[in-house]
Amino acid sequence: DAGITQSPRYKITETGRQVTLMCHQTWSHSYMFWYRQDLGHGLRLIYYSAAADITDKGEVPDGYVVSRSKTENFPLTLESATRSQTSVYFCASTSRGASYEQYFGPGTRLTVT
Amino acid sequence: GDSVTQMEGPVTLSEEAFLTINCTYTATGYPSLFWYVQYPGEGLQLLLKATKADDKGSNKGFEATYRKETTSFHLEKGSVQVSDSAVYFCALEGSARQLTFGSGTQLTVLP
Fold first, then answer.
1. Is B105 within 8 Å of B6 (Cβ atoms)?
2. Is the pLDDT reported for residue A68 higher than 70?
3. Alpha carbon of residue A27 to chain centroid
């Protein structure tokens, strides 16, 4: 399918477990982003990537790890999940030119029990 | 650092009412500004954008003007419809293309 997809769409996990959220885009966009959405906070940037093998921290990176070995994929790993990481996670991508639209995936709703 | 302050919600209007959602920002320089909309259970979609001072972004009857004097980018629509019910986010673009979002405003339009 064309576009940006996320998997799984829903995930329930236990405290302390490792969880990986997947993001895949078919446009060969250079930039990819991970945001988390929490009530009252809007969306906050976790990590971003300007190209394959180039990643950098955003506003709330603690407890998360990312990698980007291929342009089209940008997985987000919670190394040891905590209840405070219960959230809705959105992946987004955009092309290299300035001020282009960011395209968002449908989101992953993660619950940590 | 960059920040966006958005009008607190929720906002409830009757169909055909006038809508304003206030948005102000703090940033170095003159960033591009955006309004995104989120319908229930979906990701965010770009509604409109403005890339420089005095630009007016418009789409689907919504408008917002980039005001550098007041560092504002208020969203307006002259006549809302039930289908406009959604959460609206104001955002600015940083130097690494990342977006800084406001907290979102829930709009409900009643028939």
1. yes
2. yes
3. 17
Chain A closest CA to B88's CA: distance in Å?
10
Tokens in use for B21?
């959602």
Reply yes or no: is the peptide bond before residue A8 cis, omega within 30 of 0: yes
Residue from the list B43, B97, B104 with its beta carbon closest to the beta carbon of A42? B104
* CB A94, CB A101: distance < 8 Å: yes
Distance from C-alpha of B55 to C-alpha of A14, rounded to nearest angstrom? 48
B51 Cβ under 8 Å from any chain A Cβ: yes
| CB-count exposure of residue A65 (10 Å: 0-12, 13-18, 19+) | middle
Mean pLDDT of chain B: 94
Chain B residue with minimum CA distance to A40: B103
User: Where does the pLDDT of residue B28 fall: very low under 50, low under 70, confident under 90, or very high at 90 and above?
Assistant: confident
Residues B43-98: pLDDT tens digits?
A: 999 999 999 999 999 999 999 999 999 999 999 999 999 999 999 999 999 888 89
Give the pLDDT confidence score for residue A98 in this predicted structure: 64
The Cα–Cα gap between A84 and A105 comes to: 22
pLDDT digits over B31-44, tens only? 999 999 999 888 99
Instruction: Tokens 């576009």: give the residue.
Output: A3
Closest by CA to B35, choosing from B21, B16, B15, is B21
A52 CA: distance to closest CA in chain B (Å): 15
